[in-house]
Write a structure and sequence with these properties.
By secondary structure, the protein is of the alpha/beta class. The protein is about 40% helix and about 15% strand. The chain has a domain of about 180 residues: Rossmann fold (3-Layer(aba) Sandwich), CATH 3.40.50.
Length: about 280
């Protein structure tokens, strides 16, 4: 059985000063609860945000791997691609993915207002390059994190970092938004990226204001195999099943399918190691 990751507790941030009782309006959490409250006893919807403020770190690859992982574990999920107007994630998972602009109220409503009514209780949001901080700020402004704190939703953030120090500097930018999140830092080696090791002082500097639920390492995948999956334009699992993007029988290389199969299994091992299934499916706890 996969163990649930241990999350170190820390002092809660100071509460916002409330207006007098006579002047007090409904809080954002109360508003969110009234608008999207789940039926009593129902599973709480989960939102997984995959992103980074730095481009070129493989965010969409991670989102694609998550959708395959959830599907193989019989967890119904939907996805939102914020790379408008032509989303990369949508290209690989068109049947389950909607292209949205997370900073626009109309598109925010398509995600948040349907969390409880959707048959899919897991929503994966693939944030465009450079858009993580604005996306988190937008979610904060509509009261999403208050609703998470109130137990309405579950929130998981997969922060995909690059090999440079600039990726670590993103941590300070997103720290105010991850207090109620299951926050995972992701190192993506799929294209043989090399990461430096942080000395204790550097680690302390960037992680003093944020608590991580774990670190996920995505292993390298053969460049030729990755390229063939890209040309196929289908999910990794579809390529492994020797099918094309329309689900028809294909003639993919046995060798390359084997590489992708092994890689996908190793990625699944990483997700299971950090307890992702337990976080998404409360019945497994």
């Amino acid at each position: 059985m996969v163990k649930k990751p241990v999350k170190i507790t820390r002092a809660a941030p100071a509460k916002r000063q409330a207006p007098s009782r006579a002047q007090q309006a409904p809080s954002r959490a109360q508003t969110a609860k009234t608008a999207v409250a789940a039926p009593k006893g129902a599973a709480r919807p989960a939102v997984i945000v995959v992103g980074a403020d730095k481009g070129g770190v493989g965010k969409t690859t991670i989102a694609r791997a998550i959708l395959d992982f959830l599907s193989l574990n019989d967890i119904h999920a939907r996805a939102f691609d914020t790379e408008t107007p032509r989303g990369t994630l949508h290209r690989f998972h068109p049947d389950h993915t909607m292209i949205v602009d997370l900073t626009e109220p109309a598109d925010q409503m398509k995600i948040i207002d349907t969390l409880n009514s959707s048959q899919a209780k897991v929503s994966v949001i693939d944030v465009r390059a450079g858009g993580l901080s604005p996306a988190l700020q937008a979610l904060d402004e509509i009261g999403f994190f208050d609703a998470v704190k109130g137990g309405e939703f579950r929130f998981i953030l997969l922060h995909v970092i690059g090999p440079s120090i600039s990726s670590l500097e993103e941590i300070a930018e997103i720290a105010p938004y991850v207090a109620e999140a299951n926050y995972f830092m992701v190192k993506n080696h799929v294209n043989d990226t090399t990461f430096f090791e942080w000395d204790p002082q550097t680690h302390a500097k960037y992680f003093e204001d944020v608590v991580t639920s774990g670190e996920i390492t995505i292993p390298k995948l053969s460049e030729l195999a990755y390229e063939q999956v890209e040309l196929c334009g289908a999910p990794f699992s579809t390529f492994v099943a020797n099918q094309d993007a329309q689900g028809r029988a294909a003639e993919h290389s046995f060798v390359l399918r084997g590489y992708v199969r092994t890689w996908l299994a190793r990625v699944a091992d990483e997700f299971e190691r950090v307890g992702l299934l337990e976080l998404l499916d409360e019945k497994r706890r």
